[in-house]
Amino acid sequence: MLDTEIKNKERAIVVGLVRDGQERHLVDEYLDELELLADTAGAEVLERIVQTRDRIDSAYMIGRGKAKELADTAKYLDADLVIFDDDLSPAQAKNIEQLCQVKVVDRSGLILDIFANHARTREARTQVELAQLKYLLPRLTRQWKHLSRQVGGIGVRGPGETQLEVDRRLIRKRIAILEKELQQIARQRSIRRKSRQDEFKAALVGYTNVGKSTLLNVLTNADVLVKNQLFATLDSTIRTMQKDDRKVLLIDTVGFIRKLPHHLVASFKSTLEEVTEADLLLHVIDVSLPEFREQMKVVHDVLQELKVNDRPVIKVFNKIDVLQDTSLIAELKQTEQPCVFISAQRGIFLQELEQQILAAAEQVCKTMQVELPNDQTRVVSQLHELTRVNDIEYVDNKVIVKFTVLPVNADKVNRLLNITPDSV
């Protein structure tokens, strides 16, 4: 069975470009990651080619001579696929494909292929299709052989319309339909979020394949899919972490990656909105990787793009059980507070993480107590909607309500109870 699986894999060559001022080892790291992406997509990498250039070649990205070498290598190795680590322009992709006579994709196209394969829910499939069509639209000229045909004949006299224009029009129409569907999904998400607005929410964010889903499972006894694979999780998953009488909602999200295409972030906006609603961010980091600091920067940049970098963050350094240099822990404790060091898979120091999450929840939430007349049932009902009611006591003609409120709802509660900020 294994031999059959290997035979069915597409045979690929990966290509990287070292630009002026760039360090070679960084491009090698990018290509290591690209090979992991290729493996996730179902390709076997046969060879990697790296070119150093002061500037990008407008026709072939890597230059005509290197492109010819690439074509010869592809022919010699009987490759089916060439994968570029940088995004190609439609013209570059067309030129390289014609020269090599094999399929050519770039990093964005490869990530989209993985996303399409992993999309399970209606929302994920809609988001992936939208991103794919936006990626495909400027590249139509190399997708079909019928593009020079004219749609003419009876009823369509005059200059006619090329098949390319018809295809573009159909894709734009489909994009508009998908964008409307996502707007509807976003509205449904908004309604569901309202039912959770009185709960403290912590979002698990981080680079892809750092152990976010594993951590969610062990903290909440969930059964979220866990694979040692890039982008195994695409949809946001929400589970409850219960400790004594305290409850926290944990949100697992799609992982980030270097050179994440901007249109992909835009297409997955409705999923990533769960991050914008979180009260706390748990930035999960695979500290065993040599490049973990660069991955931290990638996540920070994406969070900045989502405009949530003002949220409190706990850095969760995962996989300490396979960390080679343990002296790194003492160093990071000095520079990256607040932080915690764990192994989600082996359950090491998870209690410390839980305590930090609950402490953050206590710090953010405000516990209040009010006395209301017995006839104020409407106010009590709204307190149930806006806060977590901890206790209700009926004494004589009064109702004593003890509740916990999140900052997002504090103003509404104050107005409901006619409390001025100075009097709280």
Description:
By secondary structure, this protein is an alpha/beta fold. The chain has four domains: about 110 residues, GTPase HflX, N-terminal domain (Rossmann fold); about 70 residues; about 170 residues, P-loop containing nucleotide triphosphate hydrolases (Rossmann fold), CATH 3.40.50; about 60 residues, Alpha-Beta Plaits, CATH 3.30.70. Helices cover about 45% and strands about 20% of the residues. A six-stranded mixed β-sheet has the order 8-9-7-10-11-12, sandwiched between helices. A hairpin with a 2-residue loop joins strand 8 and strand 9. Helix 2 packs parallel to helix 5, helix 5 runs antiparallel to helix 6 and helix 6 packs antiparallel against helix 7.
Largest sheet: 6 strands, mixed
In spatial order, strands of the major sheet run: 8-9-7-10-11-12
CATH architecture of the largest domain: 3-Layer(aba) Sandwich
- Which word captures the global form? elongated
Number of domains: 4
What is Rg? 27 Å
Look at the structure and give the mean pLDDT: 82
Order of helices and strands: HEHEHEHEHHEEHEHEEHHEHEHEHEHEEH
Indicate the CATH class of the largest domain. Alpha Beta
Q: What percent of residues are in strands? A: 15-25%
**Quick one: CATH superfamily of the largest domain?**
P-loop containing nucleotide triphosphate hydrolases
Class derived from helix and strand content: alpha/beta
**Terminal CA distance:** 68 Å
Q: Would you report the number of β strands? A: 15
Q: What's the CATH topology name of the largest domain?
A: Rossmann fold
Work out the helicity level.
40-55%
**Number of helices in the DSSP assignment:** 15
Low-confidence stretches: 1-6, 142-160
